[in-house]
Amino acid sequence: MKIDKIRNFSIIAHIDHGKSTLADRMLEFTQTVSKRDMKEQYLDSMDIERERGITIKSQAVRINYKGHRLHLIDTPGHVDFSYEVSRALTACEGALLVVDASQGIQAQTLANAYLAVDHDLVLIPVLNKIDLPGADIDKTTEELVGQIGFDPDSVIPASAKEGRGIEEVLDAIIERIPAPSGDPDKPLKALIFDSHYDSYKGVILYVRIFDGTVKKGDKIKLMSTGITHDVLETGIFQPVMHNIGELEAGDVGYIIAGIKTITDAKVGDTITSAAHPAEKALPGYREILPMVYCGMYPADNDKYPELREALEKLQLNDAALFFEPETSQALGFGFRVGFLGLLHMEVTQERLEREFNMNLVITTPSVVYKAYMKDGSHQEIHNPSQVDETRLDYLEEPYVNVEILLPSEYIGSVMKLCIDKRGVHKGMTYLTEERVMLKYDMPLSEIIFEFFDRLKSMTSGYASFDYQYCGHRKGELSKLSILINGEPVDALTVIVHKDQAYHRSTGVVRKLKENIPRQMFEVIIQAALGSKILTRSTVKPLRKNVTAKCYGGDVSRKRKLLDKQKEGKKRMKRVGKVEIPQEAFLSVLQVEDEK
C-alpha cells in the first residue's frame, strides 16, 4: 500500500473517560474483530486491566477502512503509566483526545494533550459519553476551546457505548492526521516501542518502521548494542498476531528474530539492516526516572533466581521498571525495585504474583533522597538504611508540581489536605465558575501514601490530579529506625519529616506489637530517631508454670525454680532470634492510612 494511505494514531484520555470502549467500537465498526469474537475492553488483554477497568499496557492494532490502513496504538490513562503514553506517541503522527462530556477536562487530559503537542502530533478532540443524563456538551466544548485552544467546529460528539459518532471519528482520522513521512528505498530504520517475551519464540519486538522494509530472512542489527540477528517472522496485530511477508515504511507491526537474551532488546532502540545500516539511530526515548522504590523479597529465599528471571521478563514488557539486587539482615536476598508511582508498584506486584506465581514480601515504599555529608560529598539514597547519620549533614527530598482540578465547593478541604501534606501553594485558576485548578509544590513522599484516596473521598470522586518532578529540596528529615531487642531491622527503616516522626513511630511500634507472636522470652520493640528512643513497647513472654509441681514445703523451693526459669529466659533472650512474620511487614504499610 502507498505510504499516503497509511495513518498512525493513538487514543489518549484521562482514566475512565471511555477510551477502551471507543477502541472497541472502532474495531467493531470496521469489522476488524467479528461480532462472535468481540468482548468488552478487547485490547485490555491482562486480567488485572479487565478487573480494575484500566489500561496498563499500550496495545497496537491494524484497521482497514475506506482503502486506508489505520494503525491504532491504545494507551493507558493513569499518571503512573504516562511513560507508556509517551512511547506510543513517538510512533504516531496524530492522536484522538477523548474527554468525558459529563466530567469535562481532567488533570490527565491536559497532561496528555501537552505530551502530544510536545511530540508535534495532530490532535482530534472527541467528546465521549454524550448519551449520559449529566452530559454537558456546550460547557465541555467551551473548556476544550478555552484550555487547549481547539476550534469548536473540530470537536466530534460521540457515544462509544451506543456506537454514535464512530464513523465521523474514523473519517476525521483520514482527513486530519497526516500520512507518515518515510522512504521504503532508504536503509531500514525501525523504532522498538514495546516488546514481550514468548517461551517458544523468544523476544517479540513491537516496531514502527520509519524507513526501508524488513522481511523474513533479512539480517538486522540493533544499533545500541551492534548485535545482529536473522529475521524469522514479521507480522501485524489484527489484533491477534498475524504473520505477513513484509513490513514497509509507515507500518506498525512485530519482528521475531530469535532473540533469547532479554537485555539485547531495549525499548527505544533502533533496528537497521546489517548489510546496509542507517547512518544514525532514531532519537528513542528519554531515560525514565523511577519515583518510588521498595524492597521485594521472595517469601522463600530459594526462589531468589526465579524472582530475578520474573523481573527481567516484566522489564522487557515494562520499560519503566528498574531493579537492582540488595540484601537485608531480616529478609535475606532480594531486589530494590523502582516504580513511577504507587499504582505502578501495586500492578507490578500483582503481575509477579499472578503471572509468575511469586510469593513476595514488600518493604515500605520510599522515594529517592539525596544525602549531603559533612565532608562535602553527596550520594543518592534509594534505601533508607543506607543513611550514615554519623557523617550526615542534611537530606534533600524530591518535590513535584501538583495540578489539581476540582469543583469549586471543595476548595477549602482540598487546600487543608495539601497544607497537611507540607504543600506550598503556587496558584489557583478558575477554569469556569464551577471548576478550579489548584497548583502546589509538594514532597513526593507525601503523595505516594494515600493522598489520591483522600483527595477522591473528600471531593466525592470529582477531583483529579497530575504531578511532575521538579527537583530536590532540603528538608528537616531524619532516619527512623526500628529496633527489635536492640537489633535494627533494616527493612523497616524509613526517612521521615521531624514533625511526623512521633506519629509514625507510635503507629509502627503498635502494629508490630500486634503482629509479632509471643516468644518464650520478652521482645522489646523500639523506634529511634538517631540515638533518641521515641517509642517503646514490649511483647510479653509465654510463661510456663514451673511451680505447679510444688505441693507444700518451704517457699524457697518455689523461689529456686523461678530463679532458674529467670536465668534460662535471660540466656534465651541473648541467643534467641525473633522471627518477624510477613504480616508484620505488611501491617506497617497501613500505618499511613490511619492518620
Key features?
single chain; 595 residues; alpha+beta; Rossmann fold; Elongation Factor Tu (Ef-tu), domain 3; Alpha-Beta Plaits; 5 domains; eight-stranded antiparallel sheet; six-stranded mixed sheet; 14 helices
Brief overview, please?
This protein has 14 helices and 31 strands. It is of the alpha+beta class. The strands form 6 sheets. The chain has an 8-stranded antiparallel beta sheet with strand order 11-10-16-7-8-15-12-13. A 6-stranded mixed beta sheet has the order 2-3-1-4-5-6, with helices on both faces. Strands 21, 22, 23, 24, 25 and 26 form a 6-stranded antiparallel beta sheet that branches.
What count of helical segments does DSSP give?
14
User: What's the name of the CATH homologous superfamily of the largest domain?
Assistant: P-loop containing nucleotide triphosphate hydrolases
The outline comes out as globular
Total separate domains = 5
Q: Cα-atom Rg, whole angstroms?
A: 29 Å
Low-confidence stretches: none
Mean pLDDT: 79
Q: Output the structural class.
A: alpha+beta
**What is the straight-line distance between the termini?**
61 Å
- Mind summarizing the main beta sheet? 8 strands, antiparallel
Percent range for β-strand residues: 25-35%
Query: What is the fold named in CATH at topology level of the largest domain?
Result: Rossmann fold
Helix content: 25-40%
In which order are the strands of the major sheet placed? Answer: 11-10-16-7-8-15-12-13
CATH class category label of the largest domain: Alpha Beta
Give a count of the beta strands, DSSP E runs of length 2 or more.
Answer: 31
